[in-house]
Amino acid sequence: MGTMALTEREKWEAVTRCNKAYDGLFFYAVKTTGIFCRPSCKAKTPVGKNVLFFDTVEAALAAGFRPCKRCRPDMPAFDPEQDLVRSAQAILRQVYTKPVDLNIIARQLNTSPSHFTRLFKRSTGITPRQYIMNSRVKKACSLLRQTNAGILEIACLAGFQSASNFHRCFKEQTGLTPQEYRKGGDGEP
């Protein structure tokens, strides 16, 4: 790649392989749809004779093409996978204190539960369920330090369905029991 001009063949290869390494080096437009994309776009590979290549977003726009809503070539830092993960985290932050159905969240994000879980783990290093448990333990830590509520009440307020699950998860993450943490232990959630 480097600073040498890319050939049409190299560009086409990048498009057919959805090669992210070429993003920003060029854009491709599909004459039949009137849309232009990044080389890494996961949309269906177009028919080669219908493709035009552009060096800049401005050139593609000037030629009358509109940006793809999937890969957002008009937004420099747009990453559809990261966008999905950020959306998932926002949803999970709102619902972690309630029973969470990941199938419903995946549907809200217009993806399958397995794809959602895979992307989430690849991006964050933990599964959505682990993210929920981490959020619940952090909430419990805050409540233990800031309120006089009972341990069982705090478990419920933080979203745990059982006291035993609360104690197990809390100890796994902080190294302390909830009582030890409340008494001033210095566990890390």
TrEMBL record:
GO MF annotations, alphabetized: DNA-binding transcription factor activity; methyltransferase activity; sequence-specific DNA binding; zinc ion binding
Listed InterPro entries: Ada-like_dom_sf, Ada_DNA_repair_Zn-bd, Homeodomain-like_sf, HTH_AraC, HTH_AraC-typ_CS, Me-P-triester_DNA_alkyl-Trfase, Tscrpt_reg_AraC-type_HTH
SMART domains in the cross-refs: HTH_ARAC (SM00342)
UniProt keyword RNA-binding present: no
Cofactor(s) listed: Zn(2+)
SUPFAM superfamilies recorded: Ada DNA repair protein, N-terminal domain (N-Ada 10), Homeodomain-like
Sorted UniProt keywords: Activator, DNA damage, DNA repair, DNA-binding, Metal-binding, Methyltransferase, Transcription, Transcription regulation, Transferase, Zinc
Name of the protein: Transcription regulator hth arac- type
Keyword Methyltransferase: yes
Cited Gene3D superfamilies: DNA Methylphosphotriester Repair Domain, Homeodomain-like
PROSITE patterns in alphabetical order: HTH_ARAC_FAMILY_1, HTH_ARAC_FAMILY_2
Source organism, top-level taxon: Bacteria
One of the GO BP terms on file: DNA alkylation repair
Domain HTH araC/xylS-type: 86-184
Signal peptide from the UniProt entry: none
